[in-house]
Amino acid sequence: MIKDIIFTVITVFNYIVLIYFTTLNIWYFVLNLIAYNGLKGYLVRLKIVSPYDKVLMDSVPPVTLLTPAFNESKNCIKSVNSQLKIKYPDMRILFINDGSTDDTLEKMLTTFKMEPKFLPKVSQLGTKNVKQIYQSQIYPKLWLIDKENGKKADALNVGINYCQTPLFCAIDNDSMLEEDSIARVVVPFIEDVRTIVSSGIIRIANGCKFENGHIQKVDLPQNIWARFQVMEYLRAFYGGRLAWDKLNASLIVSGAFGVFRHSIVVAAGGYLHETIGEDMELVVRLHKYCGDNHIPYKIRYLPDPIAWTESPTTLKTLGKQRNRWQRGLLDSVMRHIVMMFRPKYKKVGMLAMPFYFIYEMIGPFVEITGYIIFFALLLSGNAATTFIIAFLLVSVVMGMCLSVFTLVLEEISFHRYPKFKHMIHLILVALLENLGYRQLNSWWRIKGTWSYMRKNQNWY
Amino acid sequence: MIIDTIKLFQFLSIQNGEELLSILILFIVFFFLITLILFFFAIILRVKNWLIDHQDKRFRKNWDSVILEVMHNNIHPFDGYKKLKKRHSIRYLFYLEEYVDLLKGKEKERLLTLGRLSLKKVYRYLRSRDHGKITYGIHFIGIFHPEEQYKFLMLNTIDMNMALTAIREMSAVNDISIKEQLIKILFKLPNISYIFISNLLVNMGPDIVPFLRQVIENRFIAPNEQMIAIETIHRMHNMECLNLSEKVLTQANDPGVLSCWLRYLEDQKDMHQLDLIYPFIEHSNPQVRTAAIRVYLVLSEELSAEDIVKIFNDSNIMVPINAAEIIDRSRSFPYLSTGSIEELKWKDIYKEILV
Q1: Which sign, positive or negative, has the C-alpha torsion B38, B44, B47, B49?
Q2: How far apart are CA A52 and CA A186, in angstroms?
Q3: Do A264 and A123 touch, CB atoms closer than 8 A?
Q4: How far is B183 from B205, CA to CA, in rounded Å?
Q5: Bridging pattern class, strands A91-98 and A142-147
Q6: Which of A209, A221, A258, B140 has the fewest other C-beta atoms within 10 Å?
Q7: Domain ranges in chain A?
Q8: CB neighbours (10 Å) of residue A373?
Q9: pLDDT value at position B14?
């Protein structure tokens, strides 16, 4: 009798897993369709209006580029050089040295001939002490703020405090922006004054050829883990973010590339120090702030302003990254859980928050538990092999379907991977990632959840 | 109830899992078919994109030679048109547009004539139900037949994307009554940056100034319209509206309108405005105060110590930052004792100017 009940419970759980997967994939499928619709309209506009259109360029607001850096001696010169080449009429670069212990500061000071200079502090977000501010004698638009170490959020808040322009762009030191990325990403601020955040797509730089910080040749990475991430990023940015943008319910703006309205970020309190996912937390808080204060607003995502970033190439670093992302996600959602199912926050409260809670937070647990139970049943001889194979096939085919849909979106829009073999490789990746990589991801996310529950705030 | 539970258990039990298996197989087949369709679609798209790229390379040789010949008046546009390959394609029109954008005068006119002959597909697009196609249609009709574009624009102001596309090319319209109508449409477009709209209006030329003047003079109930009008005359560097200063500064209440006007005055550098501006240095709105102090500093020949104290004790930091920019430029400093400087709220900014 007890044995029967256990098996029935397990079977019911199997049904739950099946329903969970089905609804999740249907959701993703719907999101992809919404994304397709949004992309179509955007492409028409893109074909007609160049990012360097004179009327647009005469109308763009000044932007400050905030680049926080901690021990980036290897990359800092390359990335600043790439930023200096960005074509934008009115841009200032604030490189924030977050108490680096290597020779980042020395390299910057000597390479760009930087001299101490006064810069007024325009807002008063609480931060660690600023030691000195420098200005480049070669490029007057390049500034360096040397501060005590306080992690990324603190460094960004220092940048915000010294930002005198109405917009600022937060980027990672290892991100390389295309020269027209800023000109493209600010367009929503011009065409709709309610826009408070606008961001672009992040693509994997591994395998691509760069010269003087600019992309020369796009190629797929040789490393298999990086290649998996290419597909993953495409799926996330084309399918997910584009659709959430169309629904005006974007919860994530990548820390690697996002433009923010300075005044609203200051009013909302800037980046939060005590969180690991400061980028997502800020965006969710901005939704809450605007909802609470009845401020009409838009948080936009555009699929063509590109930032190229190096992705992890070893399982260890990739695992750490995913662990960190999961902790960031959990922290951002849990901090603002009160927004869930509250009509005041519109689609963010009614749709995006529940989606992230049910599918992104609980998802890995359901997936891994499902696998464990299936294999336990299989090993104990209580489940048919055909049944297990069928279930795994459903999961693989649904995953493949979404990935191929993403490739279609890439193909109708920007097709940045030019060779035919790129496409075939990406389709292969879409198949292979279901056989191990996806499960690993879920495992890392479970570990991330466990770390979060133990209140681990380490970056690694 | 017990029977129902037993039935449910039987239904869910692994031994009787045929139903579940059927559902799973159904899913596999369904999603596999969709994947397959999408896969072929992706391949077709890739091949199509590849073909288009190759065709374009070939066609561009033909288009280049014809366009250059027409441009240099070596052949008549009609003869050129007959020599063109794919002459009604949208790709060709986009290509021709690249030339048109770079040219002025007679050469541009010749290419516009050449383009007008290829609008068959554009007219078809304008009758389409697809918003994307209509937008392309409006774009090309705006370049090659701007007067006709207007009637399509009137039909499509609901679609912001379409309206914005259409309005971009309206500078080519040479009829003031149409221009006035278009300006009224622009005024009604919500949430677009007034600077962007004013830049669009600048392209319409100085003949719209009398209409803008009327707006500045009479539309105090619509501050957004006034801001657009002021910003436009500012960007046109037009001096005809300077005599409205007293009216605007006394009757406008909106901080946006006031700061716009003050920025316009800063650009005009008219010394006669100094007395009108002075009261705004103590305005309650920091944006207005900043603009007023900027223009005051530009117009006043000498700065008093009292001015310095007022500016560098302002509650808003943007006031001294903006002032520093102007003072730095003019380099005329009144004497302030070290003690008085130390008492300034924004003493660091002031000291930096002195350095």
Answers
A1: negative
A2: 12
A3: no
A4: 12
A5: parallel
A6: A209
A7: 32-61+166-354
A8: 17
A9: 47
Does B11 touch chain A if contact means CB atoms closer than 8 Å?
A: no
- DSSP β-bridge partners for residue A132: A146
| Contact with chain B for residue A377, Cβ under 8 A | yes
Contact A397 B32 (CB under 8 A): yes
Can you tell me the distance from the alpha carbon of A192 to that of B353, in angstroms, rounded to the nearest whole number? 37
According to DSSP, the residues that pair with A209 across neighbouring strands are A217
Residue type, A37: N
Cα B79 to Cα B73: distance, rounded to the nearest angstrom: 11
B6 touches chain A (CB under 8 A): no
> Quick check: A242 and A38 in contact, CB under 8 A?
yes
Give pLDDT, residue B156: 58
Percent helix, strand and coil across chain A, each rounded to 5? Answer: 55, 15, 30
Contact A387 B349 (CB under 8 A): no
- Tell me if B170 sits within 8 A of B182, measured CB to CB: yes
Query: pLDDT tens digit string along A212-223?
Result: 777 889 999 999
Name the 3-class secondary structure at A432. Answer: helix
β-pairing, A167-171 with A209-211? Answer: unpaired
Q: Which residues of A346-370 are buried (b: 16+ CB within 10 A; e: fewer)?
A: eebbbebbebbbebbbebbebbeeb
Residues A291-318 have a mean pLDDT of 93
Report the distance separating Cα A365 and Cα A440, nearest Å: 12
Pick from A133, A262, A137: nearest CA to A197: A262
Distance from CA of B200 to the nearest CA of A (A): 6
Which of B12, B14, B346 minimises the CB distance to A382? B14
CATH of domain A32-61+166-354: 3.90.550
Written as one letter, the residue type at A184 is: R
Q: Which helix (H) or strand (E) holds A64?
A: strand A63-69
Mean pLDDT of chain A: 90
Answer for the pair B201, B208: CB distance below 8 angstroms, yes or no.
yes
| Closest chain A residue by Cα to residue B351 | A118
Q: In terms of CA atoms, which chain A residue is nearest residue B5? A: A8
pLDDT score recorded for residue B11: 47
Question: What pLDDT digit, counting tens, does each position of A348-383 carry?
Answer: 999 999 999 988 888 888 888 888 887 777 777 766
Q: Which amino acid would we find at residue B145?
A: H
Provide the 3-class DSSP secondary structure of residue A175: strand
What integer pLDDT is reported at residue B12 of this predicted model?
45
**Within an 8 Å CB–CB cutoff, is residue A383 touching chain B?**
yes
DSSP state, residue A179:
T
Range with the poorest average pLDDT among A20-29, A249-258, A393-402, B153-162: B153-162
Residues of chain B with pLDDT under 50: 1-3, 5, 8-9, 11-14
Chain A CB contacts of B186 under 8 Å are none
Verify whether the Cβ–Cβ distance A391 to B195 is below 8 Å. Answer: no
CA distance A205 to A66: 21
Model confidence, pTM: 0.90
- Supply the pLDDT for residue B171: 62
Is-contact A101 A71, C-beta < 8 A?
yes
Segment (H or E) for B249: helix B245-251
- A residues 300-329 closer than 8 Å to B (CB): none
Question: Tokens representing B95?
Answer: 């290509």
Residue A137: pLDDT band by 50, 70, 90 thresholds? very high
DSSP state of A259: E
Q: Which residue has the tokens 């207005």?
A: B288
Residue with the two structure tokens 């977050």: A98
Determine the pLDDT at residue B8: 46
